[in-house]
Amino acid sequence: MLIDTHSHINHEKLTERLPEILAGLNHDRVGAVICPSYSLESMQSALKVADNSRVACALGIHPENCTEFNDDVRSFLRENLIDRRVVAVGEIGLDYHYGMEQKDLQHCVLTEQMAFAHEFDLPIIFHVRDAWQDFFEIVRENRDLVKRGVVHCFEGDSEIAKTLLDLGLFISVTGLVTFKHRDALREAIKIIPLDRLMCETDAPYLTSEPFRHLTNEPKYTALVADKIAEIKGIEPSEVDKITTENAFAFFDRLGGKFGRL
What we know:
The protein is α/β, with parallel strands linked by helices. Helices cover 40% and strands 15% of the residues. It has one domain (2-237, 248-258): Metal-dependent hydrolases (TIM Barrel).
């Protein structure tokens, strides 16, 4: 049974179908979901959806929303990171895709949220896009703040993967691995040990082929696992087993939330 370790099931694109999506857990090989946050509003809704016995959540401010990080957010994190529905801080990180005007602020917001993770003894879900070298530098300089870290929605090449592994980080894979022009990503998957991988959808985005035209949802995690199995020349059941074990070990509050799937 798989865990979709990064799925925005509280997103407005999935709101109307949320009861159906939740009822479908334990089917299509997917038994549970972690719902990360990207804004104060999404943190609030993630906690609510994590009332479901098959959903946990992560709290944090996405780098694109770094201007939202204020005392209200700090207070919310301090009040809620102790909640047993919360299994990580995230998603937090660096994103220069649309420009670097907020680079310095993104750095400050990232390191402050890393400090929250350290204070509350939580792992971190990192978002990194077009900012690898700065990200590597920040992690190296603040390694003591990272209990465990995973780079979600990995889209790098083998060299980036090697650096992440050397930093002790996990790597999480989305439906991007099924896309036609992602050969470098597929080559990277070959060199990442299975015990450092996790599977996710990043729903409602990045639906795996051949369903790319549809809105993504947790059930499509199985297609990600199937592609990893194909790349590595192993059975899908092995990917299911090991990546789920990885998720339980990485998000160490999951056992209290889900038991064993």
